[in-house]
């Protein structure tokens, strides 16, 4: 693969300025980046979760393939197109997506949006284009939901962000088909820092899907994304993640939504791949009668740590939240649910429900649950349930007595355990998810 730009080294002002110059960005964006870099250096590596001390920051910070953005799969180079075809992305797009973007390393290489969506004023593009063609909307919200000061890796993203998605749905418009972006890391020892900004205006609705993959190399790579979502009054956003990074990737992301009056966000999240994942999507329920629902599934096999969870901050009356988290650990893998529910003093008559279920498939594996609740309103309700166990010997015996071998029986029971998630994603993705789970379990038995 030929690259027009490959910028490597340790984080520095020189690299930030070089990337900003290549992108021909206005001065306020360069200042935004430099602020992020300064914050990155000022904050220590977090020590409250998985060990991140072995991350090497001497990596590729910007990799732009030597191709132009295509509007059709056939216009991509055959070598690149083959990668996406093996992942069945073009096939899925044809069947039911309203629009798709494909990011290869640091830049978007394909962008397709159905004409009927364009006519409705629905914007689905990438940050560079949004900065050029929709500067008022983009500048208004950039960094407002996740500021550079939020954490060390959000700051790193701020300094080096490239690619990602920008979505704006006008008032009372409903996107009838999902929009999807697929992220691919191809260069060895690279950092991918996409930034996604989604604004659902008053009374609008949309579903967004992100998928990701990377080949396995001997050296570690870093994925550090930032996602900012704004759900304005009476809107609804459904955000689906299908994460299947290779086992050499540190997946350290920051995702957050502001939800206003009568608005709703549904976060459907699957984490299968990566060496280490730290992901805790958070929602601020700012307006009265707003709501949030999280459904998260994780799988950790050999040499994997999946440290995931969710955060909900109730700030207004009659707000509701549900968190359902399911995890499976096998062959020495480790899963952790790390969550926060906070109900503020002014969040009268709010309700929050948390349920964490985990399966441990052998004696080598671990599962942890670290919930935190901060309830400051006596009129509100909070319920938390936790279950950790093993696969039922009776169920396993029953399946094997029907002629199903043990490995296949375990796969069936695990996919059944994840059935709540499988029912929530489109059919084509659910088939692929079940295939990936079966493959992972078979490899770790």
Q: Could you please describe the fold and organization of this structure?
A:
The protein is of the alpha/beta class and 445 residues long. It folds into 2 domains: 3-279, no CATH class; 394-445, no CATH class. It is 26% helix and 38% strand. The chain has helices spanning 13-22, 27-42, 78-86, 89-96, 115-119, 127-133, 135-141, 152-160, 393-401, 406-417, 419-422, 427-444, and strands spanning 3-9, 59-65, 99-104, 107-113, 123-125, 166-169, 179-184, 191-192, 195-200, 205-213, 221-223, 226-231, 236-244, 249-252, 254-259, 264-271, 276-279, 282-285, 291-300, 305-308, 311-314, 320-329, 334-343, 351-360, 366-375, 381-389. The strands form 3 sheets. Strands 5, 6, 8, 9, 11, 12, 14, 15, 17, 18, 20, 21, 23 and 25 form a 14-stranded mixed beta sheet that branches. It has a 10-stranded mixed beta sheet with strand order 4-3-7-10-13-16-19-22-24-26. It has a two-stranded antiparallel sheet with strand order 1-2. The longest helix has 18 residues, at 427-444. The protein is globular, with a radius of gyration of 21 Å. The mean pLDDT is 93.
